Amino acid sequence: MNRDLGLVKVLGADAVGRPGQRRFRLFMRSTRGSAVMWMEKEQLSNLSQALDRLLGQITQGQQILRVEAQVGGLPTPEGMPADFPKKPTYDFQVGQIKLSFDERDEMFILSATPLEVIMEQGQEPQVRMNEDAAISFIFTQQVAQSLSSSITLVVSAGRPVCPLCHTPLDGSPHACVKQNGHYQIIRVEEEE
Fold first, then answer.
1. CA 145 → CA 7, 140, 148, distances in Å?
2. Which of 11, 78, 102, 189 shows the smallest number of beta carbons within 10 Å?
3. How buried is 63 (Cβ within 10 angstroms: 0-12 exposed, 13-18 middle, 19+ buried)?
4. What percent of the chain is modeled with pLDDT above 70?
C-alpha cells in the first residue's frame, strides 16, 4: 500500500558528513507528514537527471536556465530547514524511486520504496524492497526545478573527480584506469 503524503510544502536534498564519507538524503514535509529518504549519491544524481529530462519534455524545448553566472565559487546547498521535525513520520533507506508527471494536474509525482534488511539468526542478512511501506508525494514544476538545482549543488560539493575515469580524488597520487596506470606522476623540484 502506497502512503500518499500529498502536496509538499518543503522538498530538498542534502548530504551529511565529510566528503568521501557523506550520506545523501532527500527530505520532504507536507500537511500529511514528513519523510527523510536516505540514498546513494548515484540515486540522487539520477533523480536530478530524470527531473531535468521531464522538465525539458514538459516545456517542449523552451529554455530553462538552472544555473546563473555568479562571482565567486558555487553557492552552498541550503540543507534541511531548522524547523524540520527531529523525528520525521518516515525515515528510511531508499530501494527504488519512481518519478512521473501528471499532465492533467501539471504535477510531479515521486514514489519511494524503502529497503528492509531481514536478519535471521545463523543466516546472512537479506535485503528486500518493502512495497507496503512505500510513500508518494506531489510537487510543482517550480519545486522540481529548485530540487534539481539543489541536488546538483549537493552532489558537486564532494571530492573532485578525475576528468578521465571519474574516480574521486583524495589528494594522494592517482593511477587513472583510463591511462592504464602507465603514466608516472612526476614531481618537479627546482634547484636553489
1. 16, 9, 5
2. 189
3. exposed
4. 83
Q: Among 10, 7, 12, which residue's Cα sits nearest to residue 24?
A: 12
Going by C-alpha positions, the residue among 36, 45, 119, 136 that lies closest to residue 79 is: 36
Structural domain 3-161, CATH architecture: 2-Layer Sandwich (3.30)
First and final C-alpha spacing in the chain? 73
Q: What is the mean pLDDT of residues 102-116?
A: 94
Cα separation, 67 vs 146, whole angstroms:
10
Question: What residues contact 175, with CB distance under 8 A and at least 6 apart?
Answer: 181
Local structure of residue 185 (DSSP, 8 states): P
Pairing outcome for strands 33-39 and 90-102: parallel
The pLDDT of residue 25 is above 60: yes
String of DSSP letters for 124-162: --EEEE-GGG-EEEEE-HHHHHHHHHHHHHHHHTS--B-
